[in-house]
Amino acid sequence: MTRSGSLERALLTALILTIAVIAAFPIVWMVLSSLKTPQESMQVPPVWLPRTPNFSAFSEVSDVIGAGRSMMNSAIIATVATAGILITSLMAGYAFAKYRFRGRSILFALLVGTMFLPPIVTLIPLYRLISEIGFNGSLVGVILPNLANAFGIFLMRQFIAGVPDDLLDAARVDGASEIRIVFSVVAPAVAPAIAALTLFAFVYQWNTYLWPLTVLQGNTDNYPIVLSLGRLLSYNRGAMNTGLVMAGATLAVLPPLFLFVFLQKFFVDSIVSSGVKG
């Protein structure tokens, strides 16, 4: 490697490390602050590392906002909605990619167009529909409109289009039904895209705020963790409660973080694959 090439590589590495540090700093600061005592949180200049890690804020935040129940509500919402999105996206993506029917292009264009609608536009109509069928105030009302997703269908359609038709025809010759072809032949062939969609859908559903706030109507027993954390805003006004707020935020980011670590290989593969396809 030439000297100019080594210098360019060193500068690029330094740039990547700088961006990584800037991106990770708020999360690291949040975790460290959750382990500090109230006195350390109030100290000026700030204390970077807690002298003795203190976990009392985590037990206290569980009592204040019912973190266990809220985490379970978030897990139910995110898991069921993600499963629904995967199933509907696979089936609709397969239909758009492999079936030839009249109006397919127009229907797909309309579907893609819904991706650009601001969520606030559909908020009131969806709320009226959920209220009419009696699901307002419940987790079912939060989950039901999120079982299908235009972005998921678009993503699956793009990847399934690359699955060879000969592979599908061979499965049909062997007597496989269309449903079995989707889940036994097509799904393994687009596994990286499924992993990426799982990550996108779970994180979005876990972090969504406006729709659950609208549907649940103050029913705190069904609040997901994101809404429950909003109740900590009053605690955030006092520096003595900084550890409490940071502990709640730390608990809320753990499940999406673990899911990303588990799926990151597939996620990167899907990005690389989509880049190669152009």
From TrEMBL:
Subcellular location per the Swiss-Prot or TrEMBL entry: Cell inner membrane; Cell membrane
Span of the signal peptide: none
One GO term of the biological process aspect: transmembrane transport
Membrane-spanning parts: 12-32, 75-97, 106-127, 139-160, 181-204, 243-263
Pfam families referenced in this protein's UniProt entry, alphabetically: BPD_transp_1
Keywords: Cell inner membrane, Cell membrane, Membrane, Plasmid, Transmembrane, Transmembrane helix, Transport
UniProt cross-references to InterPro entries, sorted A to Z: MetI-like, MetI-like_sf
One GO term describing the cellular component: plasma membrane
Record keyword Cell membrane present: yes
Residue span(s) of domain ABC transmembrane type-1: 71-263
UniProt keyword annotation of Transmembrane present: yes
Domain of life: Bacteria
Membrane topology summary: Multi-pass membrane protein
UniProt record similarity statement: Belongs to the binding-protein-dependent transport system permease family.
Subunit structure: The complex is composed of two ATP-binding proteins (UgpC), two transmembrane proteins (UgpA and UgpE) and a solute-binding protein (UgpB).
Physiological role: Part of the ABC transporter complex UgpBAEC involved in sn-glycerol-3-phosphate (G3P) import. Probably responsible for the translocation of the substrate across the membrane.
Protein name: sn-glycerol-3-phosphate transport system permease protein UgpE
Species assigned in the record: Martelella mediterranea DSM 17316
Protein's gene: araQ_17
